Amino acid sequence: MIKQFIFICGTALIFGACTSKLAPVAENAVKPTVVTEQVPNDTDDPAIWVNPNDSTEVIIVGTDKHEKTGGLYAYDMDGKIINKVTPLDRPNNVDIAYGLEIDGKLVDIAVLTERGTNKIRVFSMPELKPLDNGGIEVFVGETERSPMGIALYTKKDSTGNKIYAVVGRKSGGADNYLFQYELSVDAGVVKGKKVREFGKFQGGKEIEAIAVDNELGYIYYSDEGFGIHKYYADPAKGNEELALFGQKDFKSDHEGIALYKSTDSTGYIVISNQQNNSFNIYPREGAAGNAHLHEILAEVPVSAVECDGADAISMPIGTKFPKGMLVAMSNGMVFHYYDWRIFQEAVDKGRM
Predict the structure, then answer these.
(1) Neighbours of 143 (CB within 10 A)
(2) For 11-54, how does the pLDDT look when each residue is reduced to its tens digit (9 = 90+)?
(3) With 0-12 CB in 10 A as exposed, 13-18 as middle and 19+ as buried, what is 53?
(4) What residue stretches are annotated with the BPP domain (predicted)?
């Protein structure tokens, strides 16, 4: 029997059988400042929520992806579980959006994919109250459904916020792998209307990790084992592929994507090099004279093992995270909180 080794805070534990041997955590791997409490089954993807009215209140939500008995968990900044939604049927990825108008009030939302029901689910933040009357069906009429990845795009205009969910699935064709849904509210219930299909797919594995840059208006997604694709987030701007990068920078799978925003237009795209237990970092703003040229700046080994999902924030959070943090899923049913300063040091050294 082939054994699978799970590393939790540097300790190897025999966990069960699998089909591949995991890479060990590097000796120089970045250590997390906080490791969350465990969920019952299998963590997958986190998202960060900051209270718009009190920036000292920060909550991490993350999925526990198990059939029938999965859930969405909320953690405080010490990694303690403070709330949860259970059971959910194979929840995969989750994202946060701010200011959806419901009954005259602006409500922040967490939206996740629920593979077992072929739906996306919408919950209020921070209460985690359901807002979707049981869920919004996606990929209706498609042979292959099984929603996995999700990212939320907020378009601000004179009428307020328009919030879109960009959804990926377990498998799809070479084109139009992703569907984009505009979220609206009818009698207090969040609905979804498909507004476009887009996205090339190489066809090696699947598309799960998706991230949206609201300020610059771009969507990034991981074509596992192939590269990172970049498109416009606004459906009105069309379906032209803007960039394909990172093809030679990964050991195997391209996975979780996080955006670290130094300003409204600068910062970093941080992508999990899953089988290497590291993160590859790229310039958010591209290169001088070419906003769609993203060349690797640094690779940072981490203690998180086989990271599927990640999120980042640049806002100072207490004394532990004065320059913000990166949150990463790790095997062992946990999430890691990393001090961003360590990643910034790696980028700065690479630029010297």
Answers:
(1) 8
(2) 333 333 333 456 788 888 999 999 999 999 999 999 999 999 99
(3) exposed
(4) 20-347
Distance between CA atoms of 116 and 66, rounded to whole angstroms? 9
Task: Provide the token pair at 216.
Answer: 């610059």
Burial class (CB in 10 A: 0-12, 13-18, 19+), 80: exposed
SS (H, E, C) the chain: CCEEEEEECCEEEEEEECCCCCCCCCCCCECCCEECCCCCCCEEEEEEEECCCCCCCEEEEEEECCCCCEEEEEECCCCCEEEEEEEECCEEEEEEEEEEEECCEEEEEEEEEEHHHCEEEEEEECCCCECCCCCEECCCCCCCCCEEEEEEEEEEECCEEEEEEEEEECCCCCCCCEEEEEEEEECCEEEEEEEEEECCCCCCCCEEEEEEECCCCEEEEEECCCEEEEEECCHHHCCCCCEEECCCCCCCCEEEEEEEECCCCCEEEEEEEHHHCEEEEEECCCECCECCCCCCCEEEEECCCCCCCEEEECCCECCCEECEEEEEEECCCEEEEEEHHHHHHHHHHHHC
Residue 21 has a pLDDT of 58
Q: For residues 58 and 48, what is the distance between their CA atoms, to the nearest angstrom?
A: 7
Please report how many Cα atoms fall inside a 13 Å half-sphere around the Cα of residue 51, on the Cβ side. Answer: 11
Q: Give the tokens for residue 149.
A: 């990845």
The predicted model scores a pTM of: 0.92
pLDDT tens by residue, 124-170: 999 999 999 999 999 999 999 999 999 999 998 877 789 999 999 99
List domains and CATH numbers for the chain: 23-351 (2.120.10.30)
Amino acid at 191: K
